[in-house]
């Protein structure tokens, strides 16, 4: 099993969720996060004063799937989250050793 963590722009969430649903992803965790990379933030005006916004709002998706479904999932995220502009985000893929569904005690693939 693999865990895919994708950091994307918030306005792309619905498109990505829909694309993942179309390829059979049945569940994910979504968190609102803040961060920066090469984008570095930007300045904004508030009541006539300019201030620096260092951490930009992003959305973090966490998906645990079977190893054989990773490429389809990654391709769906890339196809829908990419704008071609700086700050599109990142995708991290890691191994998952064990999954347990709390309600039933099912483990691993049955728990996904």
Lay out the secondary structure.
Blueprint: E1 2-8, H1 13-22, E2 29-35, E3 42-46, E4 49-53, E5 56-65, H2 70-81, E6 89-95
Antiparallel strand pairs: 1-5, 1-6, 2-5, 3-4
Q: What does the model show?
A:
It is a single chain. The chain is an alpha+beta fold and 112 residues long. 20% of the residues lie in helices and 37% in strands. The protein has two helices and six strands. The strands form two sheets. It has a four-stranded antiparallel β-sheet with strand order 2-5-1-6, with helices on one face. It has a two-stranded antiparallel sheet with strand order 3-4. A hairpin with a 2-residue loop joins strand 3 (42-46) and strand 4 (49-53). Helix 1 (13-22) runs antiparallel to helix 2 (70-81). The longest helix has 12 residues, at 70-81. It is elongated.
Structural class based on helices, strands and sheet pairing: alpha+beta
> Care to count the β-strands?
6
Low-confidence stretches: none
* Range of helix content: 10-25%
